């Protein structure tokens, strides 16, 4: 089965008295190893789609399959466990824990997943090294540049070796050169690990380097 599969996803928000039908029947198959760019203007529903795909938000209708398992039928505990095991999420803002070092931020999700500290630290060190942060592991987020912070956030997202990586404008808060660098390293990481990835970006040049591009038009997913 696809790493991630969405079928008939509908999502409506109430804004006061009016209903905003943001997702109107989304179908998407994301096979292992494929990187899909999610492009489109602000307000199109990209974040909503990523949140539903990432099991952070419930669809009103439709099914989210993670590795062939229907996550929408699970209770909250099982769904959270499935998310932690199989899905990594990168946001526009890093959301790192400010009191913890870069290494500890990458270790923590692994400890929560039940890995022994020694193994977690070893994997965190390797990941940060791959992302060019070997000499920044003991720094706290406040002591890191924006690009470094975002690379730590990427390391954290893949710390538990998820099958699926979801990213919502992962370089949207960075200057163009830094964005380029972080995006390159993100693509290299994803290609090297065989992850399935869905990456929202405003940057069409970045999107052109992914395997496939989709956009949201009036709540429906259209291939570009
Ligand atoms: P994008 O990520 O493409 O900018 P979003 O998914 O964030 O789009 O938002 C799509 C639309 O849904 C926007 O009009 C936004 O204001 C609205 N929206 C998103 N989340 C909520 C929410 N929790 N409550 C009400 N409206 C929301
Ligand atoms: P993005 O830059 O990803 O499009 P937004 O600014 O649209 O982000 O949304 C940021 C967060 O706020 C998202 O989690 C989204 O679901 C939520 N949100 C967006 N619009 C609204 C809204 N009108 N009411 C409540 N929450 C919203």
The first-to-last residue Cα distance is 24 Å
**What share of residues is helical?**
25-40%
Strand-residue proportion: 25-35%
Helix/strand class: alpha/beta
- Total helical segments: 7
Question: What would your notes on this structure say?
Answer:
The radius of gyration is 17 Å and the shape is globular. The chain has about 220 residues and is α/β, with parallel strands linked by helices. It contains 7 helices and 10 strands. The model has no long low-confidence stretch (mean pLDDT about 95). A 6-stranded mixed sheet has the order 6-7-8-3-9-10. Strands 2-1-4-5 form a 4-stranded antiparallel sheet, covered by helices on one side. About 35% of the residues lie in helices and about 30% in strands. One adenosine-5'-diphosphate (ADP) binds next to loops.
Short overview:
InterPro entries: AAA+_ATPase (IPR003593), ABC_transporter-like_ATP-bd (IPR003439), ABC_transporter-like_CS (IPR017871), ABC_transpr_LolD-like (IPR015854), MacB-like_ATP-bd (IPR017911), P-loop_NTPase (IPR027417). The protein has seven helices and ten strands. The chain is of the alpha/beta class.
Explain the layout of strands and helices.
Layout: E1 4-15, E2 18-30, E3 35-39, H1 46-53, E4 61-66, E5 69-70, H2 76-86, E6 87-90, H3 102-112, H4 117-130, H5 146-157, E7 164-168, H6 176-193, E8 196-200, H7 204-208, E9 212-217, E10 220-223
Bound molecules: adenosine-5'-diphosphate (ADP) (2 copies).
Give keywords.
alpha/beta; membrane; 224 residues; six-stranded mixed sheet; single chain; binds adenosine-5'-diphosphate; nucleotide-binding; transmembrane transporter activity; four-stranded antiparallel sheet
